[in-house]
Write a structure and sequence with these properties.
One of its GO terms (molecular function) is transcription cis-regulatory region binding. This is LacI family DNA-binding transcriptional regulator. Keywords: DNA-binding, Transcription, Transcription regulation. By secondary structure, the chain is α/β, with parallel strands linked by helices. It has 13 helices and twelve strands. Helices cover 40% and strands 16% of the residues. Strand 3, helix 6 and strand 4 form a beta-alpha-beta unit. The N and C termini lie far apart (51 Å).
């Protein structure tokens, strides 16, 4: 565990934040002349810093080393997956938000490929990293930690439950809204379509859905290597059996189109015969013959939360042990695919 690097009795960025009544990330922006902060807030932060005798530590202000301000941004796509991160609108919007927030904090984001494990991270001048959807026992996250590079994650490494410094949506609440909508509108045989990647957003949704449906629902977990045609056939079978599903909750955006084709193949009508909900709002859910009910996951806010944790906590300590873990609420967007 990394200890607080401040000298004994020396005020830190959190002390200034408390005195000024703002967040640590706002203090960082105010003192660095960055961000969209009112002049009144900026002045209040400067006054609080002056009253406390706070002076930014140049090494700490640059996160790990103060040398470059470079922040690695890496989305983790499961090996052998049939989809890429840039197939998913949510991830594209999240990465855009992370990059914008980093720039506001005078940090310089560098987008790296998902298989960045082969990079010599210990020899590269990164001062921080944002890792999106870490894999279980993620070797890249372990490499970042071992290299002393402060890292925050979107989602959790399920095999490292004590590791802090992550942000995510409230998946239990999201599933509760899905199940409640299905029940309220008459769907009694819902199915969750997921992928067994071991990533936290898949795990949390599956666990919540299974608990909330209490035997009335089913879960179809596909290997990440499942092809478009294989997904289509498996969903078609679920729609055409002796007890066909009448509600479908799709977790992976890349599986939406084959699922819709499967429903068509089974001769079912949306939403009369089967209701459909997708987990993340996108152009796929907004367009098409039937617009799909989905969730706005707030990727812009998530991106700012991640960078805020990285910047604020790197000023005083390592986010692995000190940063908060933050849940961002979701918003249900009802469209034509539900009754």
């Amino acid at each position: 565990m990394t200890s607080d690097r401040r000298a004994p009795g020396r005020p830190g960025i959190r002390d200034v934040a408390t005195r000024a009544g703002v967040s640590p990330s706002t203090v960082s922006q105010a003192l660095n002349g960055a961000g969209r902060i009112s002049e009144a807030t900026r002045a209040r932060v400067r006054d609080a810093a002056a009253e406390l005798g706070y002076r930014p530590d140049p090494a700490a202000a640059g996160m790990r080393s103060g040398r470059t301000g470079l922040v690695a941004v890496i989305d983790r796509v499961p090996p052998q997956s049939t989809w890429r991160w840039d197939d998913l609108e949510f991830v594209v919007r999240l990465v855009h938000s992370v990059c914008g927030a980093a720039w506001e904090h005078n940090r310089y984001p560098v987008l790296l490929p998902s298989d960045s494990l082969e990079l010599r991270l210990d020899g590269m001048p990164f001062d921080g990293a944002v890792l999106i959807d870490p894999l279980p026992s993620d070797p890249l996250l372990a490499r970042l930690d071992d290299s002393g590079i402060a890292a925050v994650t979107m989602g959790r490494d399920l095999d490292r439950p004590a590791r802090r410094g992550w942000a995510d949506n409230d998946k239990a609440e999201q599933c509760r809204q899905v199940v409640e909508l299905f029940r309220r509108t008459g769907s009694v045989r819902p199915m969750l379509l997921s992928a067994n990647t071991g990533q936290s957003y898949m795990h949390d949704n599956t666990e919540a859905f299974t608990s909330l449906t209490a035997g009335s629902g089913r879960v179809l977990e596909l290997p990440p290597s499942t092809s478009w045609d294989e997904c289509r056939e498996l969903v078609r079978q679920a729609c055409a059996g002796p007890e066909p599903i009448d509600g479908l909750y799709i977790l992976v955006e890349a599986l939406v189109q084959p699922s819709l084709q499967a429903i068509h193949d089974a001769g079912l009508s949306i939403p009369d015969d089967i209701q459909v909900i997708t987990s993340s709002d996108s152009n796929v859910s907004r367009s098409g013959p039937v617009s799909l009910t989905s969730f706005d996951l707030g990727p812009e806010r998530l991106g700012h939360e991640l960078v805020g944790m990285l910047v604020a906590d790197s000023a005083d300590a390592d986010p692995r042990s000190t940063a908060d873990s933050r849940l961002v609420p979701v918003e249900l967007v009802e469209r034509q695919s539900t009754r």
